[in-house]
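Comment thread on ticket #2218

A.B. wrote:
> Attaching the input chain for the structure job we discussed in standup.
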Amino acid sequence: MTQPTDIRRPHLLTALDLAARAVPVLPLRAGKVPFGNCRACAGNACGGRPNMKTPGPCHCPRPCHAWAAATTDPATLTGPAWASAWRQTAAVAYHPGGTGLTVVDLDHTDAITWARETLPATRTVPTTRGEHWIYQGAMQSANAVRDGVDIKSTMAYARWLGPGTGTMTDLPEAVRALIVKEPSTARVVRAPVSVPAPAVGGECRHRTPAYLDRGVAMAEQQITEATSGVHAVVYRTFLAVLSAHGRCGCLTGAHVGRLFAAAQAKGESPRHCHDAWTNALTRLGL
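C.D. wrote:
> Ran it. Output below, let me know if you need it in another format.
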């Protein structure tokens, strides 16, 4: 006899409940690795790396990996792309920034002690190694802002581990300040940064939006697969993207955000991303 969905696939039931409350969700494999949410990317058939946690590469009309796969659409959650995924799902994740939240991910007891001494109390959720502190308000995500502390909000996902306890409070400046880095002492070339990249009247070679999306996806993959010299790889990749797409004005803030997210996933700070982008613009006279 066929069992009800909520018995056979409890993670799907959780996801549907969250989606009904306007929380964008997605299934995770073991190891907190996301599934793609379209048929072309199911099981990483599109060529994505099995452990990929950033959107792309794929030839889909929109990114469908990682945080970009999170959705509140029940038809997508129960559709054919994820039909088999829910049978393999180890956990449900959600996109905090997509619902106006920020998660301060505290990985160990020292990080929790620091938070209790430094940050205003808010809703907390126990994790395997520490706690998630959840604030009302979205911001840029960043990894390793201090020992054992990650920020998960826009362009990031976090595991759903329950509603937590305590009253959620507004995102404090103390958390926003964690991603603000001191100016580098290294000599760098400074120039105003425009996002999206400025159009200077060049001829657009981008026959379809997919052409640009594939170029950005390939750039993300190049950054993600860097095994050494990450600073140099990020700069060269930014330079290549701007060389190909920076003069016709087709790059958008979303494209640039994807590149920055890939670099930060490799450990680059927001400041290093900004410097690399600025220097690439200057090198090309943009």
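A.B. wrote:
> Thanks. Noting for the ticket: The two ends are 65 Å apart (CA to CA).
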